[in-house]
Structure formats: C-alpha cells, structure tokens
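1st attempt posting a full record on here, be nice pls
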Amino acid sequence: MRQITGYASQQGSDGVAPYAFERRQLRPDDLAVDVHYCGVCHSDLDAVDSAAQGPARLVPGHEFTGRVAEIGSEVTRFAVGDMVAVGNIVDSCGACTACLAHQENYCHAFPTLTYGGSDRHDGLPTQGAYSTGYVVRENFAYAVPPHLDAAAVAPLMCAGVTVWEPLRRWQVGPGTRVGVVGVGGLGHLAVKLAKALGARVTVFTTSPSKADAAYALGADDVVLSNDSDAMSAQHDTHDLILDTASVPHDMTPYLRVLAMDGTLCSLGIPERLDFDPMALLIGRKSIASAGSGGTRATQELLEFCGDHGITADVEVVPVAEVNEALARLRRNDVRYRFVLAMKA
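the predicted structure (as tokens):
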C-alpha cells in the first residue's frame, strides 16, 4: 500500500486535522498522482459536517491537479511527470447507456466519487485530495493545458464542468442570450465560458456591490433580481438561465425572464425548487438540471479553456490554513474559489 498524509474530518468538529492513511497499490490502468493543488468546494463543507457525526475519517477534495509519479503497466495516455487534473468522479460501471455515451456522471449504478464513495474493486471507501497523493484510473484523469495555471485549473474539474455541460447541451453560441444567477464558484465560470462561446450574458444578483466584478468577468448586463422593475424589463429576453444559487429561492422571476421555449437549468442543488407553475406554462418553458460532467465533456472543457485562456479566479492558500479557508467559505468570504497548495 502507498503511505499518504492528508487532512480528514474529526468527530465532533467542523474542521479537519492531519491524518495518515494508505492508498491502493497501482492496478494496470492506474496513475499515482502527487497532488499539487486542490480546490475547496461547498460540498466539502457538507461532507465534513456529516462525517463529523461519526467515527470514520473522511478526507475531502474532489477537484485537483498534480504530477504523475508512477503509472500502471497498461497506461498509454500519460507518462511520469505529466501534469493532470482529476474531478469528482473516478470510476463508473462502464456498461450502462450513460457510461457508453461518455456521461459517466449519470452512471445507472452511480459513479464512484473521488471521496465518500466505495471503490468498485475492493469496496474500500474513497478518500479525497486534501492529501499528498491520489491513485486514479487513467480514464478519469485529464491532461492540463501546459500554459494554464495548474492552481486555477483545479476548480474547472467540478465548478467548471458543471456549468459547461448545460452550455453545450443547450448549444450556446453567438446570438444566444444566457442569464447567470449568482456569481460564486459556479457562476463566475458560467459567465466566462458563456461569453467565450459567443453568448450575450446577463448576471442576476441581489447585491449591487457585485456589479463591477460581474462586468470584469465579461457580463454584458447586470440586473438586480430584487428590483421588480428591473426584472420586469427583462421578461421574455433569455434563451437559457443557469441558476447556480444553492439556497432555496423562488425561481418564478427567472422563469418570466425566459423567452418562449427557454430553459432554466438549476445547478446549485437547493433543498427544494419553488416556482409558480403558470410562469412555467406561459411560453412553453422548461426547468432542467445538470450535475458534474462525463469524461468527454471534461476533456472538451479543458481543451476549450486552453484555447481561450480560461481558468477560475482563485485564492491559493497553504494546506496548513485549510481550516481558515473552510471557515471563510462558510461565510462566503472568497472570490471565487479557494485552492489549497499541497506542496510546501
């Protein structure tokens, strides 16, 4: 087994603490990756809080970049020394219709998660990348474009691909009118990517103070969603809205902003979806959802970001300051994603 050090949940605590554990020995199609940078996602907070209720330790971290340290005997796409990126899915059944369509994120047998899942071969719990190293199947690792900052690439593997899939599914391009609700980890990348695809982009926010930042990201318009007159002026004007808000909220105003046959895609995974059915009915509008991304979309995203020079806006902190980063994330005190530097 491979000896690894990392940071894991603690029973009865809302933080993480140093933790030594083991990774599996390489299988033929495995890579051993020395983790350099790992993003800090809101879902990490939820996972740490849940794990703190029980005795088992959980190592978070599901969007990371690092260098290949060793390869299995059947690996063909990577060599030792390559910089790779890994997201929140590290395996799937490979045989269902979703997997065969390279949509492993919707695997009928449920994908193996980077942490908090179960290995499909030995049944052991998966542990994440708040750690010095990770072992991953070759098919779920991706080449990092060499001219991009590896720290700022890490959040593309979760936040980035989560917004990328619906942008491609609804064929966003020149002339498409896209709205983005919320300018956080997902929202800021939605603005960058939609704009690079050629769309006209409107940011909907409740905070006037975020307007300058939204324009700096590339937004064409910023609308205060708590201003009823401003929202009324937007009725029937958008083809697609990506709603990245994670707290329960009324989606009715955004449905009214959609043009006929428009789609509101909920990405923030709120506890419930609230809306007026009449706002959905009038204009033959749709509510949809999406989550994470499959291998084909993830590779496409990284190539697109390489071609257009797109990365996440990040604040890089030493891994020793992980608990401060988690505490600040609870307060939404970050623009727009924390990334842990795993190397001293």
